[in-house]
Amino acid sequence: MKSLFYPGICLVVLWTAVVSCKKAKIPGDNTPEPVLLAQVFDYKLYFDDIKDLIQGYANAEDSIQQVRSLTEHWVRDRLILVEAEKKFPKEVNMNKLLEDYRQSLLRHFFEQRTLEERLDTVITEDDLLKYYEANKEQHRLESGILRCYYFKLKKPLARGDKILQWWKTFPQQHFRDVLTYTDKHAKTNWPDSSQWHEMQMVVQLFPEGTLSSAGIRSKRGVVREDRDFIYLLYPLEVYHEQDIAPLDRIREHAARFILHQRELELLEQIKKEIYDRDIQNERVKIYTE
Question: b/e string for 56-75 if b means 16 or more Cβ within 10 A?
Fold first, then answer.
């Protein structure tokens, strides 16, 4: 047995008892006595309280170390609890707090179960469009964005390469030729035009001073060069600062908003259903009228 004493606290740790201990027993009683690991004021921690947390260790040493760690954590937690009890305002009605909390939990679980059973979570494109048309002004951009193709090619190009010639009519013509070439030769390759990029970040991909946000326009290809590289940009959609964001940019936000509104509406509907039902069945009596 190993004992540690602090002012006002008796911390008793029975490490050897966890492995093997001899206990005095009441004659005829074969029930083993609980192993006390620690005590903080009137709070007690028994081995049975934590035994499920220490299963699966390969050797006794690891298990004992885990018991020590869990016990120390419990002691520190209980010390904070005791200190909190000392400072808890005497004028506060603990029973009322507990009852309020119980009611809050019941309401929460009821609402969550009801939403799981009855909430329509299917959001159609028409739902998103309706939200977008009704809330456009709330989604003005703080900075420019764009969808684009972007490629960075190492100079010099091989003799016979037609990439710059193809680029003049890209993507209406030679689309596959350009993507095949850049997949093989580009140092930086953005073939996925579905992603949205911040305007300033794209500008910084070009040599300093060669491209500005104002110079980027939808469906106008850009070619820039420096000593080492050729930079190719083809913007498909461009939105500048204070433009209304496209639906694709806010699709996830719109879906979350629609679901949240449905949740609120469904909960209000359920409250009314319950109220109307129990008023009709005379389970409710109101005496203020």
Answer: eeeeeeebbebbeebbeebb
- Nearest partner of 158 among 190, 189, 184, judged by Cα: 184
**Domain with 166 in it:** 141-239
217: pLDDT strictly greater than 90:
yes
- The answer, yes or no, to whether residue 285 has pLDDT greater than 60, is yes
How many beta carbons lie within 10 A of that of residue 266, not counting itself? Answer: 16
What pLDDT is recorded for position 56? Answer: 66
Do both 83 and 172 map to the same domain?
A: no
Alpha-carbon distance values, 234 to 65, 171, 219, 224, 262 (Å): 62, 8, 6, 12, 40
Question: pLDDT of 183-201, one tens digit each?
Answer: 999 999 999 999 999 999 9
Query: Residue 162: CB partners within 8 Å, gap ≥ 6?
Result: 177
User: How would you classify the pairing of strands 188-190 and 197-198?
Assistant: unpaired
Distance spanning both ends of the chain, measured CA to CA: 71
- Stated pTM of the model: 0.68
With respect to residue 213, please indicate whether it lies within any of the assigned structural domains: yes
Predicted pLDDT of residue 179: 97
Whether residue 208 lies inside any domain: the answer is: yes
Determine the Cα–Cα distance for residues 129 and 131; give it in Å rounded to an integer.
Answer: 5
Domain limit, last residue, from 87, 103, 119: 87
Structural domain count of the chain: 2
**Residue 258 forms part of a structural domain:** no
- Distance, CA of 254 to CA of 192 (rounded, Å): 23
A 10 A CB-CB count for 18 gives 19
User: Is the same domain home to 232 and 162?
Assistant: yes
Please state, in angstroms and rounded to a whole number, the distance separating the CA atoms of residues 236 and 148.
Answer: 5
> Residue 40 domain-assigned?
yes
